[in-house]
Specification:
Length: 56
Amino acid sequence: MVGVKMSVNDDIIFAFDIEIFSRSYKLSGVIAWCKEADSGIYEYGLQFQLNENERA
């Protein structure tokens, strides 16, 4: 949840560096949906962009 309203826009690509079970991943994605959870607090859904090698 975030206190900033961002628009659903395929032109803005977000990059994430995450670690799961001691393995690092670099993911990119776009905002797929936005919902106001509370007054001024927003939830976002992301659509990640994976190439064929990353899908396995």
